[in-house]
TrEMBL record:
Signal peptide boundaries: 1-20
Keywords on record: Signal
Protein name from the UniProt record: DUF1849 family protein
Pfam families: EipB_like
UniProt organism field: Rhizobium mongolense
Entry-linked InterPro entries: EipB-like
Keyword Signal: yes
Length: 279
C-alpha cells in the first residue's frame, strides 16, 4: 500500500521483538483480502525550505489481485508533478510484483522515470529460506544477496490486520519489498489505533469507498527505518492510513521528513477474485 517505496504502500513486516505478535498465516486469513483497484489523489500538505519543493500534486493507482494458493499480484503507479519554484518536473514510478505467500517467494520489477526519461530499473526475486532471505537481482546489476529474515508485502498486510483484530496496538517488523536498489530490508514500527466507524461529513474520502463507506476502519501508522540506524535516527519516512479488514486503505499521509503528502481515495473498483486452487 503506498510511497515511492512499495513497503509503505503495500505494508510489510515480521514480529522481531519480545511481546510482538506472531505473523499471520493460512489461507483462511489470506482469503479475506479483496481484489481491487484504488485511485488516490495526492497533494502536498507541508514542505520545509530545505526540500526545495514549492508545490506538488499527483495520482497513485494501486491494483491488487490473486489468492493464497496461486499467489498475489500488485500493479502500482505513483505519478507526481513537482514545482521547485524555478522549474517543474514529473516523477513516475511503476512497480509490478508477484508474491506467493504459501511458498514465500516474491518477485519485483520497478521502473522510475523523470520527465519520461528512465532513471532507474530494479528487477529481482527473493525467497525465504531457513537461513534468511536470498535475493537474486537482475537489475540494476546482477548479484546475489543474503539478507536477514524478513516479511514480504502481502504477508505484512496480513500481519497488520491480524494484530489489529487481536487488539495489539504496537509491534516491530523487518521488511523486504524490493524498493530502492532492492538490496536491503527496512526496520519498521507499527502503531494500530482502536477501530472507528466513519461519521458522515467528517472524513473526506470515506464516501468514495462505495459499499465500504460506512464500514469501520483502523487508523494505522508505520515508521520505516534504515535497520542499522534505527536506535538513534529519525525514520526514513512515516505513513499513516485508514485500514479496512479486507486490505483496502484510504486517507493516506506520507511523511518524508522534509515534505508531507496526503492521498485521498478518489475511486475504488472491486475486481473478480480468482478462486483458490488449494486442495
Amino acid at each position: 500500500m503506498f510511497r515511492p517505496s512499495l513497503a509503505a504502500l503495500l505494508l510489510a513486516g515480521v514480529a522481531t521483538s519480545a511481546g510482538a505478535a506472531a505473523p499471520a498465516s493460512g489461507a483462511a486469513i489470506a482469503s479475506g483480502l479483496v481484489a481491487h483497484r484504488a485511485i488516490y489523489d495526492l497533494e502536498l500538505k507541508d514542505a520545509t525550505e530545505r526540500s526545495g519543493i514549492a508545490g506538488m500534486y499527483g495520482r497513485m493507482v494501486y491494483e491488487f489481485n490473486g489468492n493464497y494458493c496461486d499467489g498475489f499480484t500488485t500493479n502500482f503507479r505513483f505519478v507526481t508533478q513537482i514545482n521547485t519554484g524555478d522549474s517543474t518536473r514529473v516523477s513516475d514510478q511503476q512497480t509490478k510484483t508477484f508474491e506467493n505467500v504459501k511458498d514465500r517467494r516474491f518477485t519485483f520489477e520497478t521502473k522510475s522515470f523523470t520527465d519520461d526519461q528512465l532513471d532507474k530499473e530494479v528487477n529481482g526475486e527473493a525467497n525465504d529460506k531457513p537461513d534468511g532471505v536470498t535475493v537474486d537481482l537482475t537489475r540494476p546489476q546482477s548479484k546475489e544477496l543474503q539478507l536477514a529474515e524478513s516479511r514480504f508485502p502481502t504477508e505484512h498486510m496480513l500481519d497488520v490486520i491480524e494484530n489489529a483484530k487481536a487488539g495489539r496496538r504496537f509491534f516491530e517488523a523487518r521488511v523486504f519489498d524490493g524498493s530502492d536498489d532492492g538490496d536491503k530490508p527496512l526496520a519498521t514500527t507499527t502503531v494500530v489505533g482502536k477501530q472507528i466507524t466513519p461519521v458522515a461529513g467528517d472524513e473526506a474520502d470515506a464516501g468514495n469507498a462505495g459499499a465500504f463507506s460506512k464500514t469501520a476502519v483502523w487508523p494505522v501508522t508505520i515508521s520505516y527505518f534504515n535497520e542499522n540506524t534505527k536506535s538513534d535516527a529519525l525514520p526514513v519516512y512515516r505513513m499513516s492510513f485508514k485500514l479496512y479488514e479486507n486490505g483496502i486503505t484510504r486517507d493516506l499521509t506520507m511523511d518524508y521528513g522534509d515534505f508531507v503528502l496526503t492521498g485521498r481515495l478518489a475511486k475504488l473498483e472491486m475486481l473478480d477474485n480468482k478462486a483458490d486452487t488449494c486442495k
